[in-house]
Amino acid sequence: MAISVALLVGSLLCGWLLPRALGRLDVRRRDPLPLLIGWLVSMAGVLVAATTGLVLQLLPGHGVGGWAIELVVDCWSALHHGPAPRAELWVGLLGLVVGGVAAVRLALVGGRRFSDLARETRRHRSTLRSVGRRADSTPETLWLAHDRPLAFSLGGRRGLIVATEGLTRALPPAQVDAVLEHERAHLRGRHHLLIAAADALRTVFPFVPLYAHAPHALRELAELAADSAAARRHGTGTVHSALTGVARHTVPRAALGMAADAITVRMERLRHGDTGPRRSRRALACGLAATSGLLLPFLTAFALFLGLAFTVCPLPGW
Amino acid sequence: MHGLGELETAVMNVLWDADEPIKVRDVLERLDTGKSLAYTTVMTVLDNLHRKGWAEREHRGKAYVYTPAWSREEASARALRDVLDSSGDPEAVLLHFVASGSDEETDLLRGALRKKRIRRR
After folding, report:
1. Which of A65, A209, A257, A315 is found 20 to 30 A from A236 (Cα to Cα)?
2. Is residue A264 domain-resident?
3. Do the chains contact at B72 and A113, CB–CB below 8 Å?
4. What is the pLDDT of residues B53-83, one digit of tens each?
5. Is B67 helix (H, G, I), strand (E, B) or coil?
6. Nearest CA in chain B to A144
7. Mean pLDDT of A276-304
8. Yes or no, beta carbons of B87 and A256 under 8 Å apart
């Protein structure tokens, strides 16, 4: 009981505190990729820790040993048998119901999201292919005869990049290449899929801040990561000019307070002229972010369990 | 706006690239699909395009001549409006280089901004 409760409380605690910690990091000065990975992995970590907690609660007698339990073996039975067996049964049943409902909802919402995404992607691809000129490049790139400078990408198994001829009129060739590289980075990083997954998680767990804030944060980080990728190949100055050039033709929604102004953040990051750390350092940072994101809920739970054990049952001789 | 099949798209491209109304045989000659097609296949495709409202035709002598119902630019604008307007759900379908509203939305925003500025004065 104690371990599973510690896991549940630990994952909830991480679900509350992690977005604050992650939100406090300055995305303008940091490499976006480790941050992106940190968000994703901690989202998975919290889910895994909570699931483990629920499953453990259902196992009779908890099939787990470990030195921590043996250390407090004397008072373990007190903790374990403390509440009346009936109460434990009810708590277990409640956990089963809550966990079951969440799992079913996640499966349903996730399934619907992904089938909607696949259907809309297919429909848009077919519409755009009917009118665009296909360029000889991978991933598939379509050029549309249209005056507004636009560029966007569609996800899916084979991604699609769409750009308008207005883009080539508004920007010099080097900047157009940078814009296309930005879109390619979205497809390489599977950003469409990641954001859709985060959207589904937010729908199911809107009360957990980690999941509530994730779609917005991931969107911003995906743009920053794609900018970095484009800047590594074409230089920060080129990407910055391209961003300015395209943004000039659109009304910034932030002017009406409709959305946080991601473009300002992107421009500030590009103005620093930093294309991010070297490859080996990036890999290290990404690995660290992934490991800590996954372990943090479990470590929190472990710390909670130890804290509980030490307060409730002082070690012999202490 | 419904998308076209691969062959229909290829035929539309021929119509758009042509300067004047063209016959089925001209389309067949200019098609570059990598495989040889039967005359009747192309005729059927043109017939479908006419039925779907993408192509217009008129009698010239014994045969029909075909023209695109709208220019490539008009078709692109329609396709873009279609895609951009419906991309709100699910939101992750499109990732823009710079997110922007549709034409009407942009006009609305411009109008609203102007009002905001005037009120501030």
Report:
1. A257
2. yes
3. no
4. 999 999 998 889 999 999 999 999 999 988 8
5. strand
6. B76
7. 89
8. no
Closest C-alpha among B4, B51, B10, B55 to residue A123: B4
Residues of B in contact with A123 (CB under 8 A): 3
- Domain annotation covers residue A318: no
Kindly provide the b/e burial profile for residues A220-257, where b requires at least 16 CB atoms within 10 angstroms of the residue's own CB: bbbbbbbbbbbbeebbbebbbbbbebbbebbbbbeeee
Print the domain residue range for B36: 6-68
Residue window 138-177, chain A: list those with CB within 8 Å of chain B. Answer: 144-148, 150-155, 164
Is residue B60 domain-resident?
A: yes
Is B30 part of a structural domain of the chain?
yes
Closest Cα of chain B to A206: distance in Å? 17
Position A158 in a domain: yes
Q: Are A131 and B100 a contacting pair at CB < 8 A?
A: no
Q: Do A130 and B92 touch (CB under 8 A)?
A: no
- Which chain B residues touch A132 with a CB distance below 8 Å? 76, 79
Structurally, chain A folds into a number of domains equal to 1
A114-146 pLDDT tens trace: 998 899 899 899 999 999 998 888 899 999 999
| ipTM (interface predicted TM) | 0.77
DSSP state of B94: E
Question: Which residues of A fall within a CB distance of 8 Å from B7?
Answer: none
